[in-house]
Amino acid sequence: MLRITQPPATAAVTAEHPLATARHLTRYGLVVVIAWIGALKYTTYEAAAIQPLIAHSPVFSWVYGVVSVRAFAAVLGTAEITAALLIALRPLSPRISAAGSALGVLLFASTLSFLFTTPGVLAASGFPVLSVLPGQFLLKDLVLAGASLWTLGDSLAAAARRGAPGGQQRR
154, 23 in Cβ contact below 8 A? Predict the structure, then answer.
């Protein structure tokens, strides 16, 4: 019987390939989603859509007494675009990317808090059925928060490797 085997180094590279692809897809997919969401905050449509979420939040409701709905949406959009750009900088500066990831975690954690403060999150039949808007709309941020947390850990690990003696550079 003919048996074909790969050398160990080739097997390791083959096994690493899907992981590297997943890492890049997670990081840069997150960058695209956060930047897109941030850019939409500059539109009247999106500013109006987030207004009830902000207005019912015990943490953020005071903001509309200080700035307009559009102005606050623009501030959020700027923060989201900034987070996306910083996360994308991982190959150049893992520390800066970690700051963007931390900002992403904070942004999505605050959005997830709206699940508990916004009327209409649960469908008329009650828990565990979520309404489409705002319930399911907000729940997706759980995955985005997880991706932000992963990019934070990945960037911190890369920064630690760069700062290590010998400057071990991997990934």
Answer: yes
**Closest among 72, 31, 42, 41 to 55, alpha carbons compared:** 72
Q: Does residue 167 come out as left (phi exceeding 0), alpha (psi in the -120 to 50 range) or beta?
A: left
Tens-digit pLDDT string for the chain (171 aa) = 666 665 555 555 556 788 899 999 999 999 999 999 999 999 999 999 999 999 999 999 999 999 999 999 999 999 999 999 999 999 999 999 999 999 999 999 999 999 889 888 877 777 767 787 788 889 899 999 999 999 999 999 999 999 877 655 544
Domain locations in the chain?
A: 23-162
DSSP-derived secondary structure for 31-86: HHHHHHHHHHTTSHHHHHHHHHHHHT-TTTGGGGGTS-HHHHHHHHHHHHHHHHHH
Q: What is the DSSP letter of 90?
A: T
Please give the model's pTM, rounded to 2 decimal places: 0.84
